[in-house]
Amino acid sequence: NAWMQYPVGMEFNPDTVRNEMNDFWAVISSPIAVNKFLHAVFSCWGFAAAFVLGVSSWYLLKKRHQDFALKSIKVGMIVGLSGFVLLAVTGDGSGHEVAQKQPMKLAAMEGLYHGKEGAGLIAVGMLNPAKQAYNDRVDPYLFKMEIPKLLSLLGYRDANAFVPGIENIIDGGYTLPDGTVALSFRERKERGEKAIQALADYKTATAEGRLDDAAQHKRILDENYAHFGYGYLESEADLVPDVPLTFYTFHLMVIIGCYFILFFLIVWYFVHKKKMHTERWLQYVALWSIPLAYIAGQCGWAVAEMGRQPWTIQDVLPVQ
Fold this sequence. Notes:
Blueprint: H1 2-5, E1 10-13, E2 18-21, H2 24-28, H3 31-61, H4 66-101, H5 103-110, E3 116-117, E4 121-127, E5 141-147, H6 150-156, E6 162-163, H7 166-171, H8 185-207, H9 211-224, H10 243-272, H11 280-288, H12 290-306, E7 311-313, E8 317-318
Antiparallel strand pairs: 1-2, 3-6, 4-5, 7-8
């Protein structure tokens, strides 16, 4: 999954029409892969801990196996708090990598249509359903409360960095982190079409034994392969993922994650005071928090998979 979102350690073979791995270590040490693996593991810690606390609290409510339940709560509390704090750390790393490798996903996560320097991270907001196109000049938000400059800091480790919005990514012309100028959708589409045609010409030349021509076509293919998938997209709108779905699932995931950090801290306090067995309200909260952990996990996967649309393999293979 991480490789499809950031394809590294491979080379496209025009003879087999496949991406073939040529660097195993590049694949497994990809920053996207490392962050995704750790994020998934810590998510499992958090979900398991929430489940343990919920079930143990049910035992306390029913006054059954109370000693066992309290011991389970202590273990779950430690694992859960550790898991959600580490989720915040790996989430920060994932956000940074998304900004570098999948800027359209980051823009959709924040409903950011017009890029700016010192961009803030939206804490609470609602998108405007009247917003139908990336360039229709309709305000994308009905309301929003944002933390100043946090999105720039998250994405680029610079509070004043420019964060491109959906319109910027489509129109191009802004400076990328590596110092180059971003190409527009139309420019990338032209290069993608050139790569697709070069692949067809390569196969024809190879079949006819024209090896010099085949080598020339392969050179053109290699030069433009980074834009290969754009050749299959029909319009700018195809490049934009489902912004409302990505926006709301991302923010719901973050809100639930923050809730669980607070929840486990409260549990820690009452366990430390040896009052967990008397706090029925907290036991009910723990019980009904079980589905929240599941919802947070599903929201995370929705952001990862819906936010990367239209790509099966980033920039190389679209879903349609």
